[in-house]
Amino acid sequence: MLIRARKVLPSPLWKPQPPWLIFAWWLGPWKIGRKSIPWLVFFLAVLPTVVELNRLTPAGFLAMALVIACVLPAVLGTYTLFAARARARLSRPGTVRWVQRGTGAVMAGAAIAVATR
What are the structural domain ranges in the chain? Predict the structure, then answer.
């Protein structure tokens, strides 16, 4: 007997935003980074292996700060965009059904593996 999933209407994940909120995409990762100290510790731990701190000039410091200010939001912003797409895709009933069947098959496989030991 097959169990049918009830139909779930997809909800809108985001609403159209005003054009000036494009800066929110750039500032969003900084909000994340400000509340999470591990990324700062990571940069401080990696910095001496990448840059000779004895030869670091103010211009070099500004260049590194500019690179970090551009790369960090780009990387975390990309993660955010992919997460939003995954959330949108996983909210579709067909995809939910596919994921449930896949996880059910994995659990059945694990049960068979445990039972045959």
Answer: 23-92
